[in-house]
Design goal:
This is SIMPL domain-containing protein. By secondary structure, the chain is an alpha+beta fold. The chain is built from four helices and ten strands; from the N terminus they run αββββαββαβαβββ. Among the domains are: 49-64 and 173-219 and 241-258, Translation Initiation Factor IF3; 66-170, Alpha-Beta Plaits (2-Layer Sandwich), CATH 3.30.70.2970. Helices cover 30% and strands 34% of the residues. β1 and β2 (45-47) form a beta hairpin. The radius of gyration is 40 Å and the shape is elongated.
Length: 291
Amino acid sequence: MTPGLTARLPAALAAGLLALGCAAAAQAQDQVQVHPMAPGADGMPAPAAGIVRVWGEGQSMVAPDLATVSVGVTTQAPTAAQAMADNSARQARVIEAARGLGIAAEDMQTQALNLSPVQDYSRENQPPVVRGYQAQNIVSVRVHDIAKLGGLLDALIGAGATDVQGVAFSREDDAAARDAARTEAVVDARRRAEVMARAAGRQLGPLLSLSENGDQGGPVPVMMMARDAKAGSAPVEAGQMSLAARVDAVWALAPATGAEGAPAAPAAPATAATPVPGAPPAAPAAPAGQN
């Protein structure tokens, strides 16, 4: 071996090792990007890089079986005491009418009780003048038989109620309908995640987190004023109520499978050529650097 060849061997060996190390590092980096799941401290998969965050929503329609109506009595009088006395007498008749139609005591609750002065601001550049007092008493009534709601409203107005602030429809047991909305929301979230993963050339990995982001929908108010009520039972249509649910979800991304998205198969290791019977043996390769 010549001295020049001896001097070049360590340098060539070092360059080869350096190139081999760079290739191994590049391959390891590709694996981290393609396989974004790395084991966490608890042994469970933890996201390293490559997740998709989505939300999903679902809706369930159901017929209400409960109505809650807020009935108010408003009175005015020259004095505060007289305003409250008049209001109490009229509201007592309203409550008695509700009881006469089968409304139980536990289904009625005072929602608001107010007393305020009635002030006159008509005089320019002068302080307001108290002209009297106004009392208001609001009672919330729960009606389990919605078919009787129209007749109940007529009876309460006839007993002295001055307005009906609103009717809210709901269900006493809506667990099944809400569960259906939640199920639809999760399905919608997965559909969104799959669309995004395919667009990115990936497929969905395991589900990392799933949480409910509150629910939407609920009672639908139907406003009406007592002075607008016509003769006969007030027409009230319960219809259907919408129960909505929304979820937030995070999936890991995995390499795509199939002909287009599958990673390339590793090259097969080189093997010695099979000798042909009767052929002379191949000459050994000359060492590098020799002519």
